[in-house]
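Module 6 notes. Inverse folding takes a fixed backbone as the condition and produces residue identities as the prediction. Think of it as a translation problem where the source language is geometry and the target language is the twenty amino acids. Below is one complete input and output pair. Work through it position by position during the lab.
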């Protein structure tokens, strides 16, 4: 995925999860290893 497209998707995801659903997005990455995104949504 190209960087500009990734940035657009990331911004849209942030708006939906954090602003729309009061959730959170966290990121854990290790150089040369992995990248992990954790999306947390509240139970309503």
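Target side of the pair, the amino acids:
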């Amino acid at each position: 995925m190209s960087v500009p497209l990734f940035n657009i998707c990331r911004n849209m995801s942030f708006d939906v999860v954090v602003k729309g659903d009061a959730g959170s997005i966290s990121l854990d990455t290790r150089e040369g290893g992995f990248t992990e995104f954790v999306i947390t949504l509240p139970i309503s």
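Reference fact for the lab report: DSSP finds one helix and two strands in the chain.
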